[in-house]
Amino acid sequence: MVKLVKNQAVRHISWMELDEMVDGIASAIGSMYPPGVNIYYNDIDAVIPTYMLCYALKRNMAPGGVVFGLNDVGKNVDICFYNIEFPSEHFNFKPKYSLETLYSDEEGHFERVTFPWQK
């Protein structure tokens, strides 16, 4: 269960929106990495969109290639849907590509995103 805090927004992503997001990430991967480079997820929450990316790009889902994540918070990702920007540069990770940047407040809260399989 997601704990909501004061002024924290929650965005619900539909399957159609997810499909568009995957298309955007697939386009970036296709232009940044040569054919045949594997795609792998950085955590269990990213498995479904990773499968979608692999299917769209006709690539294998296996370690040793592009690391995909839903966001880049505390994780080693190459490409993600959301780059989270914190006020302190110490906590910021810079993926090679992200679709959107979400901004954290001073307490570390940022807009939460729920995906269709999480509803």
Outline the structure in words.
This protein has 119 residues and is an alpha/beta fold. Helix content is 24%, strand content 24%. The strands form 2 sheets. Strands 2-3-4-5 form a 4-stranded parallel sheet. Helix 1 crosses helix 2. It is globular, with a radius of gyration of 14 Å. The N terminus is likely disordered.
> Per DSSP, what share of the residues sits in E-state strands of 2 or more residues?
15-25%
Low-confidence runs (pLDDT<50, min 5 residues)?
1-6
Distance between the termini: 11 Å
Can you count the helices?
2
Which descriptor suits the 3D outline? Answer: globular
Oligomer type:
single chain
Structural class, from secondary structure content? Answer: alpha/beta
Q: Percent of residues in helical segments?
A: 10-25%
* Total count of strands: 6
